[in-house]
Amino acid sequence: MPGLERTVNHTQAVQAVLGTHLHTCRSRLIAGLADTADGALIAEYFERCKMIRARLVFASTAAVGGDPARATFAAEAVELVHGASLFHDDLIDGADQRRGLPALHCRVPPSEAILLGDFLLMRAFDILCRSREAVYSSGQVIDAVQVLSAQSQLCCRGQRLEIEFSGRLVSDTDYFAIVEDKTSALFIAATALGGIMGNGSEEDCAALTVYSRHLGVAFQICDDMLDLLGNEGTLGKPVGNSFAHWRPLLPVVYLSSYGSLPARKEWVERCASGCSYRELLPILHREGIIERIADTQASYVTTAVASLEGMPDGDGLRALIELPASILTAWR
Description:
Elements (H helix, E strand, L loop, with lengths): L10 H23 L5 H9 L4 H12 L8 H22 L3 E2 L2 E2 L1 H4 L2 H20 L8 H27 L7 H11 L1 H14 L4 H28 L2 H4 L5 H4 L5 H9 L2 H12 L7 H7 L2 H18 L8 H13 L5
Antiparallel strand pairs: 1-2
């Protein structure tokens, strides 16, 4: 298929197709919050969001031959679910920043932050039900609601497992199982919604699921590394926060699994004395863990893109192919 074997040079065309829909989606999200409790406050976070999951919805809709304009309600819904999960996560982790702003629970009482997150969840499904105004059948709406509900539940399960495994040695298998629920679930929801709204074939929708599952894992690997190597001003959230809470992070998982015995002993001793996340970096470099992580991330991206083989060429497909490069922030 054209585009998979060589660098794609269609960025302008892709952005022309998706940019309008993303702008419409963001505008609708913000306008819809205007008359709600603390709506202006919540809207500030959506003004700054990257809308990665909305991009997946629109690109997937186009990739299966559908009209992305029909997927606006679905894109709004998945962004609202993601926004709610972040408000709740920040409260659980005690994070004090989100998207370059004080975290919501730092601006309103924590109990109110929980309720506002719950409100976004309920609003997401209300908006998704309104997609009956844009799609071909009520069956598509029901399928969409079921998909978003199921994947949102998996996201919650992954978050719970992450907390449960915090502070414990985690195997590769456990780590990737957590990530596929915690992070990949909403990526999968986004591409599945696009497939439904675009009336895609069973084969194309299955390919999109494989793509988004692997892209989600690659994205989480990037997030793990930025928790150690990132810049707070650029990220818009605290660096080292996941490490401080002893959440399962791939650098630590790989050091425990593949590091030399002296390196593992050194790490245990440093942890016992209350080390900072910065002290982990020299060990990771020395043990070749950074290169191993980079290779793992690249493998997930390769599998994601390869899964699209056989889908019809077009701007939607090209957007999916280009997406990894635009969302996986360089951390090396």
